[in-house]
Amino acid sequence: MQYHSMENPKQRASTKMQNCYQERDKANFSDMPRVIAVVSYLTLIGWLIATMLYGKHRSHFARFHLRQSLGLIITGALLSFIPLIGWLMNVAVCLVWLFALYHAIQGYQQKVPFLGDFYQEHLDFIK
Q1: Are 82 and 76 in contact (CB under 8 A)?
Q2: I want to staple 112 with a disulfide (CB 3.0 to 4.6 A). Which of 5, 62, 116, 118 is the partner?
Q3: Residues 6+ apart with CB under 8 A from 59
Q4: Residue 41 and residue 2: Cα distance in Å, rounded?
Q5: Angle at the Cα of 48 from the Cα atoms of 44 and 52, rounded to 5 degrees
Q6: Helix 85-106 and helix 9-40: axis angle, to 10°?
Q7: Each residue's pLDDT tens digit, 1-53
Q8: Average pLDDT over residues 88-97
Q9: Residue 124 DSSP SS3
């Protein structure tokens, strides 16, 4: 014996599509701070894009990673002016950048080693 639904197959498909769009919209809204955080680590241009997106989707998580990523960008830029030693230290900054990017992707607020507290305290103009 087969079960036959009383609703039209087109109505079922329409209802499924509406539910799919609603779930996708909820997922996009809840994932936006994470997207902002990840984009902020993608060079200075990525940071600027993330800052523009942050204006519409403010959250503590996005603000945290905007500060960390800007701090890493500034640190890397300053170290690049110091010959040899600064350039070698930039390798460490790249490793810390990977560490921070990984935690942004995972959705964690992990401060970068050594300078994370400094970035959070002194880059407080990002509100």
Answers
A1: no
A2: 116
A3: 32, 33, 36
A4: 55
A5: 165
A6: 160
A7: 454 445 555 555 555 545 544 444 444 446 999 999 999 999 999 999 999 99
A8: 97
A9: coil
Averaged pLDDT of the chain: 85
The pTM (predicted TM-score) of the whole model is 0.75
Task: Take residue 29 and report the two structure tokens written for it.
Answer: 């809204």
Give me the phi and psi of 22, to 5 degrees please. Answer: -65, -45
Q: Which residue has the tokens 């830029």?
A: 77
At residue 87's C-alpha, the angle toward residues 86 and 88, to 5°, is: 90
Give residue 25's Cα distance to chain centre.
Answer: 18
Radius of gyration of the chain (CA): 21
Which two structure tokens, joined as six digits, stand for 115? Answer: 């300078």
Query: Residue ranges of the alpha helices (H) in the chain?
Result: 9-40, 43-56, 60-79, 85-106, 116-122
- Count, residues in the chain: 127
